[in-house]
Amino acid sequence: MERYFQEEIECAPIEKIKELQHEKLLRQVRYVWDNVPYYRSKMEEKGVRPEDVKSAEDLCKLPFLSKADLRAAYPYGLLAVPLKDCVRIHSTSGTTGKRVIAFYTQEDIDMWNECCARAIMAAGGTNEDVCHIAYGYGLFTGGAGLDGGSHKVGCLTVPCSSGNTERQVMFIMDLKATILGCTPSYAAYLGESMKEMGYGPEDIPLKIGIFGAEAWSEEMRHDIEQTLGIKAYDIYGLTEISGPGVAYECSAQQGMHINEDHFLVEVIDPDTGEVLPEGSQGELVFTSLDKKAFPLLRYRTRDICVLTREKCSCGRTHVRMMKPKGRSDDMLIIRGVNVFPSQIETVLLNHGYAANYQIIIGRVNNTDTLDVKVELMPQMFTDSVSEIDERRRELENGIKNILGIKAKVSLVAPKSIARSEGKAVRVIDNRKI
Ligand code: DLL
User: Are 304 and 281 in contact (CB under 8 A)?
Assistant: First the structure.
C-alpha cells in the first residue's frame, strides 16, 4: 500500500500544480525584488522587472544565481527577512573559499520538515518505525532535515549523527531500528562492519534505507540492500534550496519526485544557459516558491540530470528527476576526455568490487595521468601475484572500454582506503595543487 504524508498535493492533477506554481512564482518574484537588493540589482542589470514575469514561461527572463553569487553575497546579502525572524542556519561542506550559509525562518523549517516527511512515508515509513539517523547533525542539512521529517511522521527518532560505528550498530540492534538515514557510502560501510561483527541481513531489524547527499549507482544500491536486508531509497536536496527532501523516491523507484508545489525546476544547457525541453539532459536549476528567509530564484545546482513526467505507478504527479549523472563541476577532463567518477565506479561494481576506490589524477611531462586505487574484496585477497595481475588488467580494460582512455589500476588490501562518515571523497586531483 502506497503511503503519503500529504496525499492531496502529492497526487494533485498536474494542471493544479502548475496553477499553484504560477501564483507562487509571481508572488515570490515580487517578494525577492522588494526584499533582496542583491537580486534586484541583478534583475535591473538584465532590464527585467517583476511585472515582466507573467507566467512560468517568463522565468527564463530572470537572471541565474550561482554559488559565486552566494559567496559574493556572504553572509547576509541574499537574506530577505530581518535577522530576528530567522531561527537557524545551515552551511555547505565546501572545501574552498567561504562557506555558503542558508538561513531559515520557522516557516521555512516547517516546510522543509514536511518535504522530508513525504520522503519517509513514500519509502513506507509510519509512526510505528524507529528511524535511526546517521547523517551528520550540525551545519550539514542531512541530520536536521531527516530528523524533522521523522518527527512529523511520528517515528521514534534516534539522532545518532555520524561516526562511532560501534555505537551506531548497538543502537540499531538494541532499539530495533527499522529505518536508516545516512549517506550511501556510510550505509555501505555500516553494512560491511555489521557483516564483520557476524550480523547477517536476517539478524538486522532495518527494513528501509533513505540514502542521499552524494551520487550512488544502482549496483551500490543492490549491494547495500543485500548486506543490510533492506529496501534502499534515494533522496536528493541541497543546502541552498533547503536540504534533503527537494526530491525523493517512491515505491516505483523510477526517479525522484521533486516537491513541485515548493520548488520550480528547469533544465538548462550548462554551457549556454539555454532552457532545454523536458526530457533533455542538462543542469538542474531550482526556484524556491515558498522560502521566506533565503528565497533563491533560478539557482544553478551544477547537477546534471534528466526529468520525466511519465505517469508514475505510485500515484504521485510531481515531476521526477533521474539519478544525477554527476556534477558539471565534478566532471574531470583527463587528456581532453570528459570523465565522471560514476563511470569508473560502475566498472568496479560490475566486476564485483565495492565502492571503495580513489581516483588520483596527476600530470607528468604535460600529460595527464589517471590512477585508480581499488580495494580488493576480502574474498579476492590472495598471495598469487598472477591472479592479482589478471584482476588488475580486467579492470584496466573495463575502464578503457568505457572512457576510451587508459587508467593505471592498483589493487590494494581490503579496508586500506579511508572510510567516510559523510560524503565520500573519491577524487584527488593533484593537477590543481
Ligand atoms: O547533501 C543535502 C542532503 C542531505 C541530500 C541528505 C540528501 C540527503 P549539500 O551538502 O548542499 O546538501 O550538497 C548538495 O549534493 O547539489 C548534489 O550534487 C549532491 N546530492 C545530494 N543528494 C544527492 C543524491 C545535501 N541523492 C549536493 N544523488 C547536490 C546524487 C546528490 N547527488
Answer: yes
Binding site membership of 341 for ligand 1 (Cβ less than 6 Å): no
State how far Cα 245 lies from the chain centre: 9
Q: Let me know the angle formed at the C-alpha of 311 by 306 and 315, rounded to the nearest 5 degrees.
A: 120
Per-residue pLDDT of the chain (433 residues; tens, 9 = 90+): 899 999 999 999 999 999 999 999 999 999 999 999 999 999 999 999 999 999 999 999 999 999 999 989 999 999 999 999 999 999 986 555 678 899 999 999 999 999 999 999 999 999 999 999 999 999 999 999 999 999 999 999 999 999 999 999 999 999 999 999 999 999 999 999 999 999 999 999 999 999 999 988 898 899 999 999 999 999 999 999 999 999 999 999 999 999 999 999 999 999 999 999 999 999 999 999 999 999 999 999 999 999 999 999 999 999 999 999 878 777 788 988 888 888 899 899 999 998 899 999 999 988 899 999 999 999 998 889 999 999 999 999 999 999 989 999 999 999 999 988 888 889 999 986 5
Domains of the chain in start order, with CATH, are: 1-328 (3.40.50.12780), 332-432 (3.30.300.30)
Reported pTM: 0.91
Can you give the three-state secondary structure of 201-224, one letter per residue?
CCCCCCCEEEEECCCCCHHHHHHH
How do strand 337-339 and strand 357-364 relate by DSSP bridges?
A: unpaired
CA of 297 to the centre of ligand 1 (A): 19
From the list 303, 431, 409, 288, the residue with the least C-alpha distance to 359 is 409
Going from the Cα of 183 to the center of ligand 1, the distance in angstroms, rounded, reads 9
Q: How far is the CA of 47 from the centre of ligand 1 (A)?
A: 33
Give the whole-angstrom CA distance, residue 85 versus residue 39: 20
H/E run at residue 246: strand 243-249
Q: Three-state DSSP class for 273?
A: coil
Amino acid at 204: I
Distance CA 346, CA 23 (A): 43
Strand-pairing partners, residue 157, are 131
Q: State which amino acid sits at residue 18.
A: K
Is the minimum distance from the CB of 254 to ligand 1 under 6 angstroms? no
Q: How far is it, in rounded angstroms, from Cα 184 to Cα 209?
A: 9
* Nearest alpha-carbon partner for 42 in 239, 274, 297: 297
